[in-house]
Predict the structure.
Amino acid sequence: MLIEIGHFSLVLALIFSVLLMVLPSIGLYQNKSSLAQLTKPLVWLQGFWIAVAFIILMNAFLANDFSVKYVADNSNTQLPVLFKASAVWGAHEGSLLLWVFVLSIWTIAVSIFSKRIPSDLLNQILIILGAISFGFLLFLLFTSNPFERLLVPPLEGRELNPLLQDFGLAVHPPMLYMGYVGLAVPFAFVLAALIRGQLDSTWLRWTRPWALISWAFLTVGITLGSWWAYYELGWGGWWFWDPVENASFMPWLVATALIHSLSVSEKRGAFRQWTVLLAIGGFSLSLLGTFLVRSGVLTSVHAFATDPTRGLFILLFLVIVIGGSLVLFTWRSHLLQKSNHFALLSRETGLLINNILLITAMFTVLLGTLYPLILDTLNLGKISVGAPYFNAVFVPIMLPGVIALAIFPFVRWKKDSVSRLTSLLRFNWIGIALLILLARVVITDNIYVLIAIGLFIWVTFHAIILLSKRISAKSKFSLAFIGMIIAHLGIAVFVLGATVTTQLGIEKDIKMDVGESQNIAGYDFVFNGVKPHTKDNYSGFIGDISVYSGAKKIAQLNPEKRYYQSGMPMTEASIDPSLARDLYVALGEGLEGDAWSVRIYYKPLVRWIWLGGLMIALGAFFAAIDRRYFARAKS
Amino acid sequence: MILSWQFILMIVLSSLFLAWFLYRPVKPSLSDDDSNIAINKQRQVELELDLSQGHIESAQYQEAESEIISTLASELRSSSTKNVTIEPLKWLILIVLSTGVLSLLVYSQLAPKIIPNTDAALTEPMSMSESIEKLQDYLIENPNDFQALKMLGLAQVGTGNIDSSIESFERAFEVNPNDIDLLLQYASAIAANQDGMFYGKSKALIDKALSLDPQSIQVLYFAGIVLAHQSDLDGAIGYWQKALYLMPDSHPDRNIIEEALNTILNLQVK
């Protein structure tokens, strides 16, 4: 009966989302405040029943209730408890329930932490979030019911995809969804302002902290995904330009543009039309990502479903959301015409350049992602667009962006002069040039690494100068300022890590006999053999490799070759991590005698990639809790 | 329709929660004007800070200050609307009725017609013959329940009673002849009675499934088997390669198709 209660909870949530759209709307448009003030309780009720459904489904996994088809398809009694719990979102139906659950968390958060927003605007925002929730609940209940029963329950369930039997599944999807779904909040703010015809200072002020938080979650989610892929897929890569990765990266690029555009709109009243379009674009791309993952148009480790009905539903929803928003934007565009003046050299221009570069980069990724799909759909042949295209196009577009992000915090609002800037920074630029020359002499002559070192020094140096100037002027440090510095430093750390590990990393795919040693990057890897290894949910082999630096043993690595119940082989890499380098070993195939093929990687600065990502997210969290967002307005 | 006291309780609790808010006096809230004034005041303070820290020149400061003032002036509406009072009881009845009727109506469309005894399933699973008996009892009351007929056929295959399963599948086929899963199961059951060979009606069923969904991995797999049995090895390879192309790398059934493909490729070499 518990399963039926879970199912009925979702139905109740659907009905409350309908009431959330109808009752407060009547209250708002007929000035019936008693009805309008039902918005928050309806949001809480809807969220409560979704949470009940989510907990019941998780309980079904933990209790091995194979009478539920979704549980029987994705779990079995041998699965460890952590994987049973995270298997809830390991396939289509449950991950969609997580989508809806996360949306309800965001909606409840908006209803609780928006005491400084006028109630009419807040009610309108919650109504729109309720409408989005309604669309997804409808999709969940009518095409993807996670509570579907099997009349004859099997004695044992099937298996969760072995790739997903990892701690990464417990953290990556929830974080990513917090970001993906969180973009619904700035979208709802913008749509509410458009519907009310009040595109004023209030919505601009309050959209930014929510955009920052969702962007921070999206950054953490993408970073965790990259880290997971690195250690799980067994070949040391950290970004694959997989279409579904791109589907999460595109909203990230647009959201990055949005948080910068919002700062100009909020402080100086410029770019308001552009800001509205970015908020609509960010959420639309998040829906596009959902469509790509769930429609079956993509074949990928991330692809959940190959059901055209589901794809059609999301496509229809996508068309309604994008079409409806753009119609609304056109209708209200006259209210957004006014834009305050700024000169060619000004901080506003810097943020405009940032936006242009980010959106251009987004379109190149969109083109590379969708073009093969469009060709395939039109039967015009199959082409593959991979890393060479994305690296060749994306990197040169973002390079000037990284240079600009160090300079423009020094540029004044509205108008500045080149002479003031050069006199302010010229000695620092000479210092930076000397440091890059020193790096050329002492560290490397690899041009790409030199560029990355140059960018790292460029951004770090400018950040230090900015801080020192603030300290010497005895200025107050706002959290927004500290957040900006951390996030920009995070970009520099990421660029250096990504370039150094790609350019200077070493990879060897070799045959090793017991007792044999291989020297890679100054480390001796000694192969001590392989023995059988069994756990509850898999069996296989575990390798024993000792790593020496000179005569000193520095690590014991135990890579695994696992065979899960489905027979699917999995490579489980073993890593000796450090901030300076990773030593990464993966087991290949057993060869004649006791020999095995082994892949050994030396990955310098690879951890800086994820450190940079986390710094960017941390910066956004700091900016979102700036004091200005807690100042109370009095009635 | 499944109606239980738990569902009624869920509806009643939700309605009571809403009733409490419906009867609560309306709280005064911040108006748009109050909010815009406060924000623009704050913008002005920030602008002064920017000036003192040298982030804006004094000439541009004047311009920015007048922009803030004109922005605020354009945003102020000073339109106060009179609150219209409502009769809470009338609305509460409407909420309770609409929640109750709509939720039970939607649930009746979505809910399974019979619920397995899950308590038993968790501790001591039902035997296959018990399941078959339960399904047969249920089908006496609901002779045209497609899912139950299909499930009965599957359970009968599980007990080795192929003839009965073919009868059950035939009945299900009469109810819904376009269900891909049924077509494949039905064809497999007939083939099981033909020494595993797909010809005659079993082949016709696979052909029908293929015409309904030429992109289905399962259908492509079976279509390959049909052609392999007709010694059309190239055709079988074509279907299986297509199935592999459509499958994610991590698909659990990938090994089965790869094995079949390897077997047939070896046959071709020989």
Remarks:
- The domain at 194-270 of chain B is CATH 1.25.40.10 (Serine Threonine Protein Phosphatase 5, Tetratricopeptide repeat).
